[in-house]
Fold these 4 entries.
Entry 1:
Amino acid sequence: MRAIVTGASGGLGLEFARLLAADGHDVVLVARSGEKLEAIAQELRAAHNVSATPVALDLSGADAAGALVAQIPQCDILVNNAGFANNGRFDMLDPSHVREEVMLDVVTLTELTRAYLPGMRERGNGRILNVASTAGFLPGPFMAVYYASKAYVVSFSQALSEETRGSGVTVTCLCPGATETGFADRAAMHDTLLFKLPKAGAAGVARAGYRAMLKGRDLCVPGITNKFVQWSAKLTPRRLLLWTSRKAVE
Ligand SMILES: NC(=O)c1ccc[n+]([C@@H]2O[C@H](COP(=O)([O-])OP(=O)(O)OC[C@H]3O[C@@H](n4cnc5c(N)ncnc54)[C@H](OP(=O)(O)O)[C@@H]3O)[C@@H](O)[C@H]2O)c1
């Protein structure tokens, strides 16, 4: 089977690529950092005797999905993992950074799913793993676009998991909380309460999502703290929820 992992040059994506290759799948590794991808591809080929193809591509570009599909027309396992967050007051963010965030976290994820799902359905076999976040369960003042994007990913994935029921294709949404990757660096979040608290390891979070994908589960919220966030977002009064959410990332 051929698997595509977006954001495979580090963090969770690298761990997904390792899990897939260890299970004997051919992997296509997508991210912007071509040299990192080439080194990872070599590691995976040597360790697992699989085909590993690096594709250096900016997935926030217009029709990035089309460019990837032109190179890799077929996919059996799609891991929509690439994502990043802007951190700051919305009206002060650089508009080009906002666009980049929506393109990567929402548009390309949607377009890749739209491109590869029909083939999976025809073959009666396929897996899609979309990486959202516990941020998808609540609004996030000062990371408004990121939290809204992840809410989209949760909703989109769960709807598709129902649409694909019985087709041989499954759609799983992984919702990690703070995890030790390059994410906090890029979002400049190391000084926030959220990232000062203990963080999960990337390998364990990826393993939980990968197992959930293999079982065809619609949602995976790894770890007790993240489950607490999921449930308290449902039960906490909105005003208090917004206040605590703000304090976590301010
Ligand atoms: N870490 C956390 O605390 C956490 C919590 C909840 C959810 N998540 C989600 O987990 C997913 C993976 O993030 P991570 O934590 O592993 O962060 P990470 O270490 O920063 O990895 C992000 C990956 O996405 C790639 N990427 C970023 N911008 C890209 C672009 N424009 N085009 C193509 N690839 C791009 C990066 O590679 P290049 O830089 O080489 O392009 C990298 O491989 C994201 O969707 C994130 O929102 C993370």
Note: Residues 193 and 248 are 5 Å apart (CA to CA).
Entry 2:
Amino acid sequence: MSNVDTPVVIIGAGPAGLTAARVLTELDIDYVLLSREKVPGENKACAGFIPFSALRDFNISTLPGAHPVTTVRMKFPKQDMKTVEFGAKVGVNVSRADLGMTMLKYVGAGSAEIRLQTEVGRVSIKQSGCEITLHKQGQSEKLTSEIVIDASGVNPVSLKMIRLRERLPDHLMGYTAQYQMRRPSSMGSLNGANDFYYGGDFSPSGYAWVFPRGHDIAVGTGGLLRSFKEEKKRMFDYLDYLISHDDSARLTLENAEVVKRESALVPLAGIVQPSFTDRLMLAGDAAGHCCPITGEGIHYSMIAGKKAAQTAAKAVRKRDYSAGVLSKYEKDWIKAIGSNLKWGLWLQQRMVGSGSGGLGSSLMGSDRSCKIIAEMLVGARSVRATLLAAAPTYMAKKLRH
Ligand SMILES: Cc1cc2nc3c(=O)[nH]c(=O)nc-3n(C[C@H](O)[C@H](O)[C@H](O)COP(=O)(O)OP(=O)(O)OC[C@H]3O[C@@H](n4cnc5c(N)ncnc54)[C@H](O)[C@@H]3O)c2cc1C
């Protein structure tokens, strides 16, 4: 091995970076994890819904601060609220700081190092290795590694220096606004329900959500960045309208106060390639690993982080960090999550602008299709299976081909 400080540098302590670190720990490969925040996730704008399958796949049995979700309620334009009760826990709502602290417990054994409150400024990839410039408390330092896993989120830091791909265009990038709210009293039976609001009153082209976790509630809206720019309406105006005009939202948010306002980008781009080059892999939002129709990215990022770590471990053992070896990573994540990314984009492009008409209304017509859509929203049904089950027959024929 050449003379580097560590075999692998991971940038970012979100679900992608922390899972990559956990898997490298399990595979006994040393690494340094660098991340900006003091508590992983504390500054991340997120509604915090995690599907049951993610907890099961990653063996997360205890998640402090997690609130079970058993019900989905959906409001489509000109229709009453539809309620789908699953009768069992389909996932949890959790604060991102609680998730971050839980995931942190699985990492950092042996000579692995976790450096929080550390900002990565530059990443340079040379034939001889990687050089990462980092800043902590006014001090700068350089770190060298064989491989970098960049899991630094939607605008990955390494792409500022390395022209692996272009920045995502506005029609493939989501824009969100969210209030973190707090109610003085508990929400009783409403506490297990995640609410989704569709239609132009609540979002420029996506949906608004109300996800409670005890006294705390994430109330947000999202849509494509392009639609948002075209509408020229403030994202928070959609939220204020939801809170003040919709009866269900008014009831849920009675006496609730806004404790935090946040807005953030989210990739809604389908399969984005390439996600690797010599010595570098992008994982999670950095690689577009977020479902374009549901906006779900936590589980996807965990899967991508795992695949990146497995490929990194192979490369370290072979001492071959070339794109040829790292290409396995892209094959692996496409196999695992590519279908949902691809069909999620397909569906999103047919829903945007169709409002209550077109494919949107045919998908959401009956109680049966509402249940199917609800299963997709909680990550219990793939996008393709959703389309096959809920789309009209002619659509199903197209898809089968
Ligand atoms: C408003 C909103 C609501 C959402 N709700 C949900 C939801 O309910 N369920 C769901 O599954 N998904 C949701 N998502 C999507 C989900 O949040 C993301 O897909 C997921 O967080 C991506 O994980 P990640 O690890 O790739 O990146 P991130 O979680 O963004 O983590 C990136 C990490 O990199 C660090 N970092 C960034 N730049 C640097 C740097 N230069 N130096 C050092 N560290 C750096 C950050 O501090 C952070 O720790 C939501 C997104 C938004 C915007």
Note: The chain has a mean pLDDT of 92.
Entry 3:
Amino acid sequence: MTDNFEVIIVGGGIVGATTACALAQGGINVALLDMFNPQRQWTDDSVDLRVSALTKASQNILETLGVWEGMAQRRISPYKDMRVWDGKADGELHFDCADTEFNELGHIVENRVTVAALWDKLETLPSATCISDAKVSQMQMAEKGRTLVLEDNRKFTADLIIAADGRDSSLRNMAGIDVTGWPYQQDGLVATISTEKSHQLTAWQRFLDEGPLAFLPLSDGQCSIVWTLKTTTAKAYLKLNDVDFLEKLEQASGGILGKMQKTEPRAAFPLRFQYANSYTDESFALMGDSAHAMHPLAGQGANAGLLDAAALAELVIKTKQQGRPLSSKKFLRQYERWRKGDNLLMMSSMDVINKTFLATALPLISLRSIGMNIINQTPLIKKLFNDHAMGLRMDLPVLAKKQKCW
Ligand SMILES: Cc1cc2nc3c(=O)[nH]c(=O)nc-3n(C[C@H](O)[C@H](O)[C@H](O)COP(=O)(O)OP(=O)(O)OC[C@H]3O[C@@H](n4cnc5c(N)ncnc54)[C@H](O)[C@@H]3O)c2cc1C
């Protein structure tokens, strides 16, 4: 037996579940498939190792979908300030929410919080079907749309299949779409840390020899760190005992938050620059990390994926309202044109910043510090940078402007 839907999304992470939530509220008969069952409950004292700094644009999307409230009830942490400085020279950037119309620059949110609130919301939407423990193993062309075959041989057909199944997307391979990219030879080491001094609701980022070290403020007073290191160093640091690891971290922090007092288990994620050569094919679209993976130094991967989600949902809903088929290539090409350029620009900017800060030649180090200080002292340029970091740029999908797309 085959179950039929208008749209099937494979991957119930932040990006896929957001798309499902938007489509279901737009009256689309949508199924969300994931090979796991997302975690919905945990003890108050545990913190997810995976957190994301979510922009204002992302907040707008999740608020408009009625999901933000469920996230806030669990735990979100506003950050009001951002300080970025060069560990090898005197370059510094400071962004303060007092210079904006908002009470904060963004929020640090555990990934499991966002996913749990999205799945909770989906369960209240009549035109959404969530199917967990569902690993897709094959994708075939169907008379109308495509058919997915699961590992346990269940079959599902839809006019449009959306792959939000992460950086190593198997759906992308099944569709025969190639990627362009390279490994950074760097890992993002993540951990939760208690520090002697208060984080002051500030996101701190210090650029060091092997990459940036970020301290992201959590609502319980701890910090979630993302420490970019050479892969070999990250592997070695994972093996250190807590005391030795905290000592290395304290040295790297330049003492900005005082003594590093306590740490939880750590993990490291290999970093890649990677984009899908095409975002779409017949009755098929890629989004989120399956379409683009970027360096986490400015915390933009999930935010870019949420803009993909808002853009594609807007176009799918409009296409249905106009009575056109969801397998139509025309609106899929429109989605690709809308999102690919923006994502490539963001990824390339992260790539250039990473390379600039890895440079060891003295003239370059001086130049980048001069550049940082010029930006810091020029309100107009600083505002441009800040608006971009907060996701407040041109050509946003309507959900990101806090308007419904249905
Ligand atoms: C160290 C680090 C720090 C980061 N910090 C930030 C940050 O501060 N801000 C930010 O915006 N971004 C950040 N990112 C990026 C962000 O984490 C990702 O961009 C985001 O999580 C991608 O979400 P996604 O939904 O596209 O994919 P994923 O989260 O990878 O979800 C994919 C889903 O697909 C499912 N799946 C996979 N294959 C199948 C299959 N065959 N069948 C069924 N289901 C399948 C998986 O179970 C999973 O649930 C960071 C990344 C790293 C590595």
Note: The chain has a mean pLDDT of 96.
Entry 4:
Amino acid sequence: MARNATNKLLQKAKKLKSDEFYTQLSDIANELQYYKEHFQGKVVYCNCDDPKNSNFFNYFVLNFKKLGLKKLITACYKEQTNDLFDTKETEHAFFYEYSGTENGYLNQADFVYFKGDGDFRSPESIELLKQADIVVTNPPFSLFREYVAQLMKYGKKFLIIGNINAITYKEIFKLIKENKVWLGINLGRGISGFIVPDHYELYGTETRIDDAGKRIVSPNNCLWLTNLETSQRHEDIVLTKTYAGNETEYPRYDNYDGINVNKTQDIPYDYAGYMGVPITFLHKFNPDQFEIIRFRKGNDGKDLSINGKCPYFRILIKNKRI
Ligand SMILES: C[S@@+](CC[C@H](N)C(=O)[O-])C[C@H]1O[C@@H](n2cnc3c(N)ncnc32)[C@H](O)[C@@H]1O
């Protein structure tokens, strides 16, 4: 096979690896507990979920009454192969609607087959999206930007899992800065791990087999992203440090009128100007307390630097209360 083609295949395999992370019920329940009041009388759509194996589907069926849901729609994507030599019978994409009547029983006879592949961007899936109030899932990481853009386009409420890196995507950061989207409660080690298929190669220390024999990887680099309100995000970060008298601890940037702060808990409570903080700040960010100004770059369009050296990526913020 030509080298280029091999590379392409390898890249595709790498990309698809994290697309095959399946979410554990415990991690879903751990996060969803903070949003219960949003679901009363609502239609939930899980648009990247096979109800035969999705714990998002399981969670909403199990909690259908408790949450007071109106309807749960779950849509399963099936990649359509055009390979002439593929002998597998092509599986069909479908969706399944649950209204709390049949005791959670998943009856194959009630599957509605899509004409297409059930891609979340397909007109058929978008029609279902339009009916939904809240979208909750773990979408394919490789399509994360597009996925969020579509939710914003259709003005949907959502709670989804993504990679922590997504914060640094220009499009996603812009939404966070504009206070249209924010981080959920759990992130990193707060999401205990994902179920992976049998063909997934387990390596490293962050892997295990659970009591039920499921293969689990814990990448510790994921987060929940949402536009559903929680009271937690309006809690102030407790600030105990002063700038006055400790100026040397907070060096100024070469290319921006602001000071560098290495840890969120070290943000001084008495500094009125711009401050560069690590991206993990966003996990504690309260929009009533701070304003996000910009990401990473100084006035010259280059990464923020101190005496010519760049600390890790910084988010520039300002205290709203002083
Ligand atoms: C990271 S996995 C998560 C699966 C499930 N949501 C869960 O959390 O267990 C992403 C899923 O998205 C599906 N998928 C991939 N591309 C898709 C697309 N274009 N449209 C809809 N679903 C897609 C994959 O088949 C895979 O099941």
Note: The longest helix spans residues 3-19.
